[in-house]
Amino acid sequence: MSFTWRYLVRPDGSFTRIGNIDGSLDNVSDEELARLRPTADPDEDEQPARPCSRCGGDLLLHWHGPLATGVWMELCPACDAHRPAARAFIRWHRDAGRDPSALPQLFEDWEAETMHAHGWARAAPPEAPASPPAPLGLTPRGRG
Q1: Which class for 112: exposed (0-12), middle (13-18), buried (19 or more C-beta within 10 A)?
Q2: Does residue 85 register a pLDDT over 90?
Q3: What confidence score (pLDDT) does residue 37 get?
Q4: Exposure on the CB side of residue 21, measured as CA atoms within 13 A
Q5: Average pLDDT, rounded, for the chain
Q6: DSSP assignment of the chain, as one string?
Q7: What's the rounded Cα separation, in Å, for the pair 140 and 56?
Q8: Helix/strand/coil (H, E, C) string of 78-101?
Q9: Tens digits of residue pLDDT in 30-64
Q10: Long-range contacts made by residues 96-101, C-beta under 8 angstroms, separation at least 24?
Q11: What gap in Å lies between CA 34 and CA 16, rounded to an integer?
Q12: How far is Cα 76 from Cα 62, in angstroms, rounded to an integer?
C-alpha cells in the first residue's frame, strides 16, 4: 500500500491535505475535492486562530507535527523569516499568483525544517529487502 498527500489550496492561500492511499484521489479534480471537503465543515487540520508562541504576533499557519510527536508547528513571518524553507513558504503564501503545485514540496521542506528545530530528523525511507537468489539448476517450467 502506498501513501501520499493530496493538497487542496483555496484562493486565500489556506489549504488542507488529504491522505491519498494507493492513488485513490489521483483522478479527482480539485473542484470535486473541494466539494468533498467544503470550507464550511470543520476540518481536523484547521485550528482556531492563535498568536505566535514566541512573539505574540499573527501566524500565517499553525499545524500539528507528525503523529505522536506532540509538536505544533508555527509559521510566523516575524520569527521565521531567517529560516530558508519557512521564508519560501511565507513568500508563496503571500503571493496572490501562487502556484498550487509548489505547495507539497514547500510544506514538506518547512515541516522538516521546523521538526529539526525541535530535535527531530526525517528518517530515510526503508529500502526493500533483497530478493532471494535464483535457484541453482534448471528453472521449472510453468503450466500452460
Answers
A1: middle
A2: yes
A3: 64
A4: 1
A5: 79
A6: --EEEEEEE-TTS-EEEEEEETTTTTT--HHHHHHHS-TTS--TT-----B-TTT--B-SEEEE-STTS-PEEEE-TTTSTTSHHHHHHHHHHH-TT--GGGHHHHHHHHHHHHHHHTT--PPPPPPPPPPPPPPSSPPPPPP-
A7: 71
A8: CCCCCCHHHHHHHHHHHCCCCCHH
A9: 777 777 765 544 444 455 678 888 899 888 888 87
A10: 98/9, 98/13, 100/7, 100/9, 100/30
A11: 10
A12: 9
**Cα separation of 55 and 111, whole Å?**
20
Phi, psi of 130 (to 5 degrees): -65, 145
Give yes or no for a contact between 38 and 8, defined as CB atoms under 8 angstroms apart: no
Cell of 8: 487542496
Predicted TM-score of the model (pTM): 0.63
Length of the chain: 144
Q: Name which residue leads in pLDDT, 46 or 126.
A: 126
pLDDT at 40: 44
What's the CA gap between 49 and 46, in Å, rounded? 9
